[in-house]
Structure formats: C-alpha cells, structure tokens
C-alpha cells in the first residue's frame, strides 16, 4: 500500500503487487494503467510517498519494540520549536512545509556533495522542479529532527527515498 498525503492507494488492482505474502494476479499492462491514473502533477504536490508493505504476523507479535513514541514526540517538538524560531517574524511561515522558493533558497542550502547527489537524483529519476523543492524541504525537516543545523547528504538521500512513486516503483 502506498500512502499519499493523508490518503492511500493500493499498488495495483488486486492490491498485491510487490507483496512478499501473496502473489499479484495483475498483468503488467493493468498495473501501469492503474498507477497511471495518479497524475504526475498531483504526485509532485505531495512531499512524501512511501511503500508500506504488509506486515507478517510474526513481526506484529514479536516482543521487540522500536523507538518509544514519547521520545519521537519530544524530537518533533524540538524540531517544531527550531522551525518556529527560524521563521519568527515571517508572515504565514510556521514550518518547513510552508516555505516558498525564496525561503527554500535561504534555509535549504546544501554543500557540493549534497548538490551532486541531488543533481544525480534529478537526472536519473527525471524529477520535476516541484519535486526538487519538496526534497529540499523534507531534507531540512530531517536535519531539524536530527538536531543538525545544516542539511547533509544523508538528509538529502533519505528525502529522495521518500519519493518512491517518482522512482518508477511500478516498472514491471
């Protein structure tokens, strides 16, 4: 299942394309037609799209735990405070997602290695200018969550990974 904005879509008509649990019964043509219904300009306007595979019972029932919600929440609060300080006195700006081109150029500066990584991703994945801006804003947020002032290559790399539907995931 792909999560798009605050919505979700199945990867194909039967819902099993890419599943490790159940085999997909769709033809390549059906998959392309199905995913093709989501327009590129719509996808460009969504900051993050990721694949969310089905979780097997053993993984759900496992006693091991991940990071506690409480610590994640604290990191988010700190990141939002950083953003509030960054945009203090700027009308209509409260979070990285609110940035327009002018603010992106000011607050999302990247070093040479980051620029090379982003250039390579843009060329290889055929990303649009809008996707470029979205990647920079998401990378800025990832850096904020990590408590790091500058955007590093690893933040850009992670942000690029959140553009799964731009990466021809549905090529079969």
Describe it for me?
The chain has 172 residues and is mostly helical. The chain has 2 domains: 2-61, no CATH class; 69-166, Helicase, Ruva Protein, domain 3, CATH 1.10.8. The chain has 8 helices and 3 strands; from the N terminus they run E-E-H-H-E-H-H-H-H-H-H. Strands 2-1-3 form a 3-stranded antiparallel sheet, with no helix packed on it. The two termini are 17 Å apart.
Keywords:
3-stranded antiparallel beta sheet, single chain, disordered N terminus, 5% strand, Helicase, Ruva Protein, domain 3, globular, mainly alpha, 2 domains, 49% helix, 172 residues
Which CATH top level class of the largest domain fits? Mainly Alpha
Give the beta-strand count: 3
Low-confidence stretches: 1-5
- Whole-number mean pLDDT: 85
């Amino acid at each position: 299942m792909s999560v798009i904005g605050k919505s979700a879509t199945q990867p194909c008509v039967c819902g099993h394309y890419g599943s490790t649990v159940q085999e997909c019964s769709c033809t390549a043509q059906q998959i392309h037609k199905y995913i093709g219904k989501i327009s590129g300009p719509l996808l460009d306007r969504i900051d993050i799209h990721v694949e969310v595979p089905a979780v097997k019972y053993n993984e759900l029932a496992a006693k091991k735990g991940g990071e506690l919600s409480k610590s994640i929440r604290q990191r988010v609060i700190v990141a939002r405070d950083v953003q509030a300080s960054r945009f203090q006195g700027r009308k209509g700006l409260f979070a990285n997602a609110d940035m327009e081109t002018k603010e992106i150029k000011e607050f999302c500066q990247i070093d040479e290695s980051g620029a090379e990584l982003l250039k390579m991703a843009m060329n290889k994945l055929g990303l649009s200018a809008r996707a470029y801006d979205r990647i920079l804003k998401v990378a800025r947020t990832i850096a904020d969550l990590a408590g790091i002032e500058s955007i590093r290559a690893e933040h850009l790399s992670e942000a690029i990974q959140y553009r799964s539907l731009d990466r021809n995931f549905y090529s079969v």
